[in-house]
């Protein structure tokens, strides 16, 4: 992990180079030297946490319909790589367990984004939290969500990971709002970023992490403003830019 000010999280793994949220993308993020990996979690019909971004499988697999409509066994029949490139044909959906087993001996941060803003999966917080605890990864994990009720629920269960509030919309009183929710951090869309927001957030001891910064100019602005982390599809490039920025 880097001791430098701004950490680099591979967004959905190194998803600029490999299909998002697949083992290939996670492995590549690790090889490229990312400080952490961001991934998204949903529940299958049989309540198994799986790593995919959309509620439906249509965009990133050869299937169709909601993740929630599939058992894990059914979901594992789908191809999660060929939409990106024939090179990745045969990739399979990754469960949270598989991911945690893979990452637990690696010096990486994890950001698990609970995808419960459109479908508020029952008990998603405890299902995910208990697995992170089981694998001994509480100290290096950040949990985040766009769903304010989920931030509250994570705090109610006493999540040692804290609960980061994700936002993609302008909010006049964002810091106060996040503070009232007892969010541990703010994960904000790049276009909403300002130096004042970072300063105010830091005054309230909330980290600021920024998504999704794929352009060099965006990355450099985040580094110079003192963002705690960026999420990028191109961790290898971001690491190079951070190196140049710091030298
Ligand atoms: O967690 C940061 C970012 O991933 C949030 O947006 O839509 O890419 O999951 P999205
Ligand atoms: Mg995400």
TrEMBL record:
Residues 6-242 form the GP-PDE domain. This is Glycerophosphodiester phosphodiesterase. Gene3D superfamilies: Phosphatidylinositol (PI) phosphodiesterase. It comes from Lentibacillus juripiscarius. InterPro entries: GP_PDE_dom (IPR030395), PLC-like_Pdiesterase_TIM-brl (IPR017946).
């Amino acid at each position: 992990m880097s001791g430098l000010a701004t950490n680099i999280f591979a967004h959905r793994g190194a998803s600029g180079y490999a299909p998002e949220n697949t083992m290939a993308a996670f492995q590549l993020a690790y090889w490229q030297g990312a400080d952490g990996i961001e991934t998204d979690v949903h529940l299958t019909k049989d309540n198994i946490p799986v790593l995919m971004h959309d509620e439906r499988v249509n965009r990133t697999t050869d299937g169709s319909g909601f993740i929630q409509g599939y058992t894990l066994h059914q979901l594992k029949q789908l191809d999660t790589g060929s939409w990106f490139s024939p090179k990745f044909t045969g990739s399979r959906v990754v469960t949270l367990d598989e991911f945690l087993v893979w990452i637990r001996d690696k010096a990486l941060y994890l950001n698990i984004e609970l995808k419960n803003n459109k479908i508020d999966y029952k008990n998603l917080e405890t299902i995910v939290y208990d697995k992170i605890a089981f694998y001994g990864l509480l100290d290096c994990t950040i949990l985040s969500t766009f769903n304010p009720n989920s931030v509250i629920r994570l705090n109610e269960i006493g999540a040692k990971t804290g609960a980061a509030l994700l936002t993609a919309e302008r909010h006049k009183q964002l810091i106060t709002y996040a503070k009232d929710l007892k969010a541990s951090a703010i994960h904000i869309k790049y276009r909403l970023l300002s130096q004042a927001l970072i300063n105010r957030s830091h005054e309230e001891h909330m980290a600021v992490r920024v998504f999704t910064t794929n352009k060099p100019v965006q990355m450099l602005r985040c580094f110079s403003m003192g963002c705690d982390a960026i999420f990028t599809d191109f961790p290898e490039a971001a690491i190079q830019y951070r190196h140049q920025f710091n030298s």
